Structures are given as structure tokens and as C-alpha cells.
Amino acid sequence: MTVTILTLFPGLFQGYLESSILARAISRGLVGVKVVDIRSFAVDKHHVCDDAAYGGGPGMVMKPEPIAAALEGTTAPGARVVYLTPAGRPFTQRTALDLAHGPDFTLLCGRYEGIDQRVIDSFVTDEISIGDYVLSGGETAAMVVVDSVARLVPGVITGESLQEESFSEGLLEYPHYTRPEEFRGMRVPEVLLSGHHEKIRQWRLLKSVEKTERYRPELLDSEDLSSEARDLARQIRKEGDGHGRDEVT
Ligand code: SAM
């Protein structure tokens, strides 16, 4: 799969693409990332890419011509073009899965007040927000999308790691522990040392449901939950703050 990123700041991606899982996925040919400098498509002498907003207002707007030329020069007609914007649909693990299993796509990074609406109307197939806050530019949002999509591309990381992650079962993930068994008086939960796979699975599911109830209770109402997780959620909710329930040990 190849992701094309259109940006005014291509240099921001350099270190990012050269590190860790993503760099390995690129060098193994599993993922391709093409970073395109929108400014190189501006035809005027000073390569101007922004101008004042019609109707007034303090900020500048990215001009349509260089973006349109960059898209036409790099993206196949009909390809998926995602504009990263706080005014878009929230980005979730489901969106990442959808992108990872689909064809090549393009990410368009805005700057200033954003991009001319006519570019959105002509080329953009999806508007995606990575959260309810405003960044200075779409580049960090593009990194978030590329990172979360690339690790879902088959072969990039093991399928087993993906199965147990937050959101994969509609829940937040359970806590992790590694050596030593005791750190500053805190012991690793006994069940994890027991070697009893079924009890470990039950304990992890319980911890996942507890954590989800604490931080993202709305996820527990999802249809995606297994009946076992749903029963645990019901039990936790019935017991109010969770005290007094049977712990899996
Ligand atoms: N005027 C815009 C608004 O209020 O919706 C904000 C523009 S923001 C300063 C500049 C660029 O950063 C946007 O065009 C977009 O590409 C990117 N951006 C900012 N916040 C984002 C978010 N939460 N998700 C995705 N992209 C974001």
C-alpha cells in the first residue's frame, strides 16, 4: 500500500519515516510513503501557496491551484483523498482498518485557516479529524493516520499483537507487566505468574472492562462487545465503583 502525503512542510516527515516500525515496513516494501511538496506545484515566481480569505478574517487560506496541481500530478483519478481537518469525521481504529484494507490513498495536510473549499469539493473523498483540538497543521495528524494504518497492514506487526490491542474488541487494553516480579514493593499480579492461560485471559478481560468503564464508559454500550465482556460490564456497573465483585486471581 502506498500513502501519498501532500504538505507545505515535507521536511517534518523525514525523521518520522526513518524510525521504528514504519521505517522497517517501508524498507520491507510493505508500505510506501510518498511525501509531496505542494509548494513545488505553485507556478508563480515566489511559489505562493496562501492568500487572504474572501469575506475577511485574520488568517490566510491555502490557494486552490497548487493543491489541485499537486493532486492531479500525484494521485490517480477517483483515488481516495483524505483532508485532515478538525472539522472532519473523528478518526477511529475502524477508520484505520478501513484505510489499511483499502487501496492506496492520499493525505492532504492543511495549514493556516485551512484550504480553499473548492479543492475539497473537487477532490476530497473524506474529511478526517484526529481529535477535538486544533493543530497548527495537518502534518502531525497525517503521521497519526499513517502510523495507525501502517501497523494494520498485513505483515507489518504480528496479527496476535493486533488482536489484543485497545479497541480491537471494543475495549481499552488491560495493564502490562514485565520483569522484575517485584518493583518498589509492588508485585506483578499473581495470576500472571500462574501459567494458567484461561485464568490470565479472564483477568485481562476483567481489567479491560474495568479500565473501559473508568475512562471510556460509552464504549461498553457498543454492539461490538462479546457477551462475556457485556456481562462483566453489567456486573461492574451494578456494583457501582467495582468494589466487592469476585476478582479473578
Ligand atoms: N480554521 C480551521 C478550523 O477552525 O477548523 C483550523 C485550521 S488549523 C490551524 C490548520 C490545519 O491543521 C488544518 O487545515 C488541518 O489540516 C490541520 N488540523 C488542525 N487540527 C486538526 C485535527 N484535529 N485533525 C486533523 N487535522 C487538523
Give a description of the structure.
The protein is an alpha/beta fold and 249 residues long. It folds into 2 domains: 2-158, Alpha/beta knot; 164-239, Trp Operon Repressor, Chain A (Orthogonal Bundle), CATH 1.10.1270. 36% of the residues lie in helices and 17% in strands. The protein has a 5-stranded parallel sheet, sandwiched between helices. The protein has a two-stranded antiparallel sheet with strand order 3-4. Strands 8-9 form a two-stranded antiparallel sheet. Strand 5, helix 4 (93-100) and strand 6 form a beta-alpha-beta unit. The radius of gyration is 23 Å and the shape is elongated. The protein binds S-adenosylmethionine. S-adenosylmethionine binds at residues 84-87, 109-111, 113-114, 129-131, 133-138, 141. S-adenosylmethionine binds next to strand 5.
Percent in strands: 15-25%
Structural class: alpha/beta
**N/C terminus separation:** 44 Å
CATH superfamily grouping of the largest domain: SPOUT methyltransferase, trefoil knot domain
Provide the helix percentage. Answer: 25-40%
Uncertain segments: none
CATH class wording of the largest domain:
Alpha Beta
Distinct helical segment count: 10
Number of strands: 9
CATH architecture assignment name of the largest domain: 3-Layer(aba) Sandwich
H and E string = EHHEEEHEHEHEHHEEHHH
The major pleated sheet works out as:
5 strands, parallel
